[in-house]
Amino acid sequence: MTATAPQALPGADGASAARAAREAPATPDERRRLRFCRRFGFTGALLMAVGALGCGATPASAYNPLLGMRVLGLPGRLPTVSLAMAYVGMGMLVLAWLWLGRLAWPGRVRLTVRQLSRILVMWCAPLAVAPPLFSTDVYGYLSQAEVVSRGFDPYVFGAAQALGLDDPLVASIPTIWRTTPSPYGPGFLTFGRLVTSIAGENIVLGVYLHRILALVGLGLVIWAAPHLARRAGVEPIAALWLAVSPLVLFHLVSGIHNDAIMMGVVLFGLEIGFRSSWFVGALLIGLGASGKIPAVLALAFLAAHVARERCLAAGKDPRGRDGLIALIRWGAAVSATGLAVVAAVSVGSGLGFGWITALSVPNLLRSWLSVTTDLGVLGGQIGIGLGLGDHTDAVLSLTRSAGLGVAALVCVLLVLMVLRGRLHPVAGVAYGFGTVFLAGPVLHPWYLLWLMVPLACSVTAPRVRGCAVAVTAAVALLVPPTGNDFTFRAYQLPMAITAALLVAIVPLLAARGNTPRIPPRSAAPRDEAVGPRP
After folding, report:
1. How many angstroms separate the CA atoms of 511 and 507, rounded?
2. How far apart are CA 97 and CA 124, in angstroms?
3. Domain ranges in the chain?
4. Residue 170 to residues 63, 211, 333, 359, 430, Cα–Cα distance (Å)
5. Which of 236, 341, 349, 446 has its CA 20 to 30 A from that of 32?
6. What is the pLDDT of residues 250-275, one digit of tens each?
């Protein structure tokens, strides 16, 4: 763990150097390379979008509108080809993002926030109109919202119990989740109920409405990231580039996970809390936590920031007894405000507090990415090997509880580091979320975004940022671009990967001599790029 204290941006001398650098015109070769990078990533996104028509999470076959269509229905009849196209597109998009990072690395920035935002929007566009990839969760969102709309308690009844097995929404979700209650908070289910009231029985419209929610969340991230970065002494371009990574495009835009809207609201709340009003910030974070309860952790770091600021304003030392008293006082105020929003949404939505008991629903899945789950399964297998019987569930309960206990202790230490000025509050949020999810019972690849996005906005250490880039790129390629069930056609996945590796030779050859070069290190952060906008 690297402690990152707030840093000041360069002063007048640095600004003059950056302004002088901006006046140097970009060469035609630099503009050509940037155009190639932008188009290379866009082509990868297009390939993923076309592949999604055949391997994406379309509705169950009996309700799939693509079946029977002459052009759009063709990829569905060629699933292996669709998978290969999606894999090639994933690789191209990740490579384009890495090349773009040469122009967005701290001290070597050659882009503006506006330029980078336009490029990211361009890459998002094909994925935003294509069927979902990587996950079928959006159909779970729709089915749980339908359960609420029909007057059932989503924290008691599963989709199959309330809607019936022949319902098209139930048929579109994995079997393991058809009978389980909803694991989401009342805030998100209230959003879902609104989507259902608009879409009605139109599944495709419901999917796109949820994607609009995800895009709104992504927009909040794009707005908040540069502002939070400036407060931590990180160049806004570098923060935005790392924050909106292929992992975001794949799992929040294409996969339509509700982490997008929750994370966007939390980051927006943190910026408002730092900028103007801790009260409004706590209200917004509480609203995000009403959808995904772990988001409530951000309240602790907002409270630590407020307590430190109040101590310094009063001429008191936040590292001593006065700091602890202020942390308790403001921690209670900030936490009470945020939790009051969660309680108000629970009561106002009519869903009550059943979400508390439903928090254990995700634990039904044994996630191999979770360290505590892996240790529990390993302990159970050792017991079986020693002839002690199968006690895997008991060992899992022990290791998962221990993991959450360790996470709680680490979060307390992080809050104290923020109070004493040894850690920026946004970095504390990043490490806190990372600890909770990494030590938690279930870890999905997109959960890492709760660590990576605030980390991108707060950490300046090159080694930490380099490690974050490597992890992001690797994890982005970890999950197969499937949405349909390939359980009984497992042979198609290795065939598609082999084909993708062979086909990828063509774009790699085209990229030779056309990728952006690493620019010389600037004397100061640059707010504007050299040359015209792409």
Report:
1. 6
2. 12
3. 8-134+480-534, 184-356+414-476
4. 11, 19, 42, 21, 35
5. 236
6. 999 998 888 899 889 999 999 999 98
203-232 and 259-275 are packed helices; what angle lies between their axes, rounded to 10 degrees? Answer: 30
The percentage of the chain sitting over the pLDDT mark of 70, rounded to a whole number, equals: 87
The Cα 298–Cα 331 span in angstroms is 11
Query: Which H/E stretch holds residue 519?
Result: none
> What does the angle CA 404 – CA 139 – CA 370 come to, to the nearest 5 degrees?
25
Work out the percent of the chain whose per-residue pLDDT is above 90.
Answer: 22
Amino acid in the structure at residue 308: R
Tens digits of per-residue pLDDT, 281-339? 999 999 988 888 888 899 999 999 999 888 888 788 778 788 888 889 888 999 999 99
C-alpha span between 259 and 141 (Å, rounded): 12
Across the chain, mean pLDDT equals 81
With b for 16 or more beta-carbon neighbours within 10 A and e for fewer, the 475-508 pattern comes to bbbebbbbbbebeeeeebbeebeebbeeebeebe
pLDDT of residue 486: 58
Q: Which two tokens stand for residue 286?
A: 């509480």
As given in the structure block, the two tokens for residue 412 are 């307390």
Q: Tell if the pTM clears 0.85, that is, is over it.
A: no
